Amino acid sequence: MTQQDNKVLACVDLSPYAEHVADCAAWAAARMGAPLEFLHVIDRHPPMPAVQDHSGAIGANAQEQLLQTLSEEDAARTRAEREAARVFLQRLRERAVAAGAAPVDTRQRHGELAETLAEQQDGVRLFVLGRRGASAATTQRDLGRHVEWTVRSLQRPILAVTESFKAPERVMIAFDGSAITRKGVEMVAASPLLKGLPVHVLMSGKPAGDAPKQLEWARQTLERAGFDVVAKMEPGDPETVIGQAIRNLDMGLLIMGAYTHSPLRQLFVGSKTNEWLRSARVPTLLLR
Fold first, then answer.
1. pTM (2 d.p.)
2. Backbone φ and ψ of 107, nearest 5°
3. Helix (H, G, I), strand (E, B) or coil at 91
4. Which of 5, 96, 154, 278 could form a disulfide with 1 if both were Cys (CB 3.0 to 4.6 A apart)?
């Protein structure tokens, strides 16, 4: 595997939230010693301005002229979008370099966001994206419309950034003994991303019979990797318990499994991942 196969990929749009994504991605890339790339995906089917239809009231030559005019306007709009994005991406690149990331590259693509990121993931070690984006101001969404299906389409860790970013000083792992959260513990133990940071492993909800054994495995795995670890089991609703612990212990990053049930089940019982991302006040590393 080459270094370019091990990059941090930050997906950004032309919104104020992109600066927080850039800060988080630069922090992660510098910690991991990995190259960083900013990717801006331009929607293949953007909303078009309303145009009055005169096609039935004009002759063939006039129709041809109208189509040519519309085509030229579309081409001009595309050039303007690309130039605005180029300037924006360059500013983010300079911001990331100043924060210690290197090398830093930028790229633009036309297409659908989830599809484009899925195509890129073979060369990516970590994705970074914002919990909200450019549409937040107009839609009042507390979770971007692309987030769930983008995360579902990827098989790499995704770092979802909130409305601000501060380098974490303490980390929490929401642990339930499942294969995905055990993988998360092993990933933390093996990666330089969180080396040197205290880790709090929290198991909540209704404990399984082997819960103490699973929790002890997590603690030992992290301690062998050199981490300062606290491992605890707290009864109660996981979302409530985790949220309170993050506030009380001043945690700066949460690691959790994401969308572990099928989309059909989510239709009926709702997504705990979405609920958490809507209420989260710290960056969340999602495991798939």
1. 0.82
2. -155, 150
3. helix
4. 5
Nearest Cα neighbor of 119 from 90, 155, 86, 95 is: 155
Peptide bond connecting 192 to the previous residue in cis, omega within 30 degrees of 0: no
**Quick check: helix, strand or coil at residue 253?**
strand
Q: Is 257 helix (H, G, I), strand (E, B) or coil?
A: strand
Specify whether the CB–CB gap between 128 and 159 falls below 8 A. Answer: yes
What is the number of other CB atoms lying within 10 angstroms of the CB of residue 106? 20
Nearest to 106 by CA among 42, 12, 19: 12
- Which helix (H) or strand (E) covers residue 264, if one does? helix 263-269
Joined together, the tokens standing for residue 216 give 């002890």
Task: Please tell me the distance from the alpha carbon of residue 144 to that of residue 56, in angstroms, as a whole number.
Answer: 40
Gyration radius from the chain CA atoms: 22
pLDDT tens, N- to C-terminus, the chain (288 residues): 344 458 999 999 988 889 999 999 999 999 999 999 999 998 765 555 544 554 555 556 777 777 777 776 666 776 777 888 899 999 999 999 999 999 999 999 888 888 888 888 889 999 999 886 554 443 334 455 567 777 778 889 999 998 789 999 999 999 988 888 999 999 999 999 999 999 999 998 877 788 999 999 999 999 999 999 999 999 888 888 888 999 999 999 999 887 665 443 443 334 566 676 666 788 999 887
Bridge partners of 284, per DSSP, are: 160, 254
DSSP annotation string for 2-38:
-GGGGEEEEE--SSTHHHHHHHHHHHHHHHHT--EEE
The rounded Cα 128 to chain-centroid distance in angstroms is 4
- The DSSP code for 282 is S
Distance between terminal CA atoms of the chain? 21
- Tell me the pairing of strands 7-11 and 36-43: parallel
